[in-house]
Each structure stands twice: as structure tokens, then as C-alpha cells.
Model the fold of this input.
Amino acid sequence: MDIASIVGLIAGAGFILMGILLGSGIGLFVNAPSMAIVIGGTIGATLVAFPLKDFSKVGKALKRIFMFKLEKPEDLVARLVEISNKARKGGLLSIEGDIKTIEDPYFASAIQMTVDGVKTADIAAIMQKKMGVVLRENKSGITLFTVMGAYAPAFGMIGTLIGLVQMLATLDDPSTIGPKMAVAMITTFYGAVMSNLVFLPMADKLKVRSAEEIKNMTLLYEGVISIREGEHPRLMEDKLNIYLMDAKQSKEDKKK
Done:
């Protein structure tokens, strides 16, 4: 479970709630029609923009955000070196028992193909195709949440316009102007909160997840191909460690 995402959502919502309670009661910020406009409008527009099969993957994307767990790249390198040493001493068939202890299906499948004697080119092609599938799924989720993050404030503004029209229609009663103006503004508030606390941060978290996942898959790809080709474990370890250093440097450069 990703503690940072959960803590971030709770903290963000908590500070917003605290700000509300310090100035007024929570009742002023609860309005069912405004919620319906923002939530319903955002979902409706997203369904128009995306095929149903893409929208139905929201659950999978949320699982990647909150429940996804990746092994540390350093641990993967150590495991690959261990398997490579075993294969070098006892042959490829000697690593068949390791398959049962590998939790990652991508890793397990690659080792299974290696044990089965599948050609290196075929193993490489299959692993690259699987990486491509994962990358496309991640990009789909990122795009989906980014678009929802753009739609939510827009429907918040639409709700505000609806409220203003309703307010102007009753200008003959000055006592209703204040309350109706407040309700009109609440819809914009809902859209802004949903966009900046939920949808856009989720898109950013998926970008991070995708980069981490592809990095691990690339490490496994390079390691398994080295094992299949019978490269010396020390040479493989050196190559993978260089890749780790390059990836770390690229990440630091992006932060600057």
C-alpha cells in the first residue's frame, strides 16, 4: 500500500476542512446539486472523450496508485546475479526451481522461457512487447486522470454559471442574493478541489509509478538476456549497476 498517496489525500482534505471550520460551519460547503454537476459532468465528459474500455481501467489505475508494490532495483540486480551464478555452475535447468520463488509474473515468465530453451531473440521480443503493453496502460491512466483534472474545474465553472443565472432570476428578493451566490461559488470550489487534490496528483503519481515499473522491467530484460546468453555474472552485474547509476543520475537531473 502506498502510504504517501493515502496520507497526502487525508492531509489535503484535512487542511481544507480545517480552513472551513475555522471560518464557518461545514454545512455552508455541502450542496448536492453542485456535487452532481461537477462529478456527473466530469464523468460524462470523460466517457465522451474516451472509449468505455479505457474508462473501465480506472480501477486498475487506482490500484497502481494505492496498492502497487515494486521491488527495489538493487534487490532485482542481486537476485539476477544469484540466478546467473547458479545457471553458470549448473546449467540453465538448474534455475528452474527459482521460478516458483519469483512473485513478479514478468520475471518468472522470462526465466521459464530461458529454462525451456527459447531462443534469445524470441525471449527479447516477448519481453519487449510486455513492456510496451505496461507502458501503454500507464499512459492511458495518466491521460485519463489528466483529462479529468481539466474537466472538473470546467464543470465547476458551469455550475457557478447555473447558480448565477438562478440568482439573477430572483433579484427582486435581495435576501436570496447572498445565499445563492455562495451556492454558485461552491461548485467552482468542488471542481478546483477534485482537480488539484485528486485527479492531477493521481496522474503525476502514475507517471512516477510508470517510470519505476519500466526501469525494473528493463533491468530484468537485460539480466535475463545476459543469463540466456551465458554471460559472466560479474559482467552482467557491472552492466546492470551502470544502468542503475545512469537511471539515478537522470532522475536527479530532472529534479534540478
The two ends are 29 Å apart (CA to CA). Residues 177-229 form the longest helix (53 residues). The chain has a mean pLDDT of 88. Residues 32-255 form one domain.
